[in-house]
């Protein structure tokens, strides 16, 4: 085990560059998947004729596919139909599609968890269905959704490591390049990788707990 060689300044700088890519991909994917997930989850909850069923089929299909397959599809299959994406764009697209489906189910379940009596009371007070949904149901549901949504975001951050298969220069990709140079680098490099993932995900967990306690 060569700790000094593995954790040289150049290697740490290279790892930092990869971690920056990981955080960038995760951040963009989180924003996009949250927006799409809320829209799709709401559409499923609203039970709009035909549209809700189409969304349900899309969500359930994606949820039952492995993320790795979606990553391969966006990077290797789409160019066959004339849509060539860079590794970073393909990674964001795949993660967004997959996580949107997961979040849509969380949103739908959260909306369904609100007592029907509150909805009926809001409607009887003169609010429209849309007003009831966005001013009464959604705010309460979002509070209940915080823990599972943050857990899904943590999973998304970890799932960025799968993008190593399309040569995305993210954290794990750069780590592999370093320890491939010398077998004695493996343990120190993996220790750094584990530590960085733990720190970021633990911070997200603390934020989730604080939000949950504040809303309790």
Verbal overview:
The protein has helices at residues 3-6, 9-46, 51-63, 67-77, 87-112, 116-124, 129-159, 171-179, 186-215. The chain has a single domain, classed as MetI-like fold. The protein is built from nine helices and no strands. The chain has 216 residues and is mainly α. The chain is elongated and about 70 Å long. The N and C termini lie far apart (49 Å). GO terms for molecular function: transmembrane transporter activity. InterPro entries: AA_ABC_transptr_permease_3TM (IPR010065), ArtM/GltK/GlnP/TcyL/YhdX-like (IPR043429), MetI-like (IPR000515), MetI-like_sf (IPR035906). One of its GO terms (biological process) is amino acid transport.
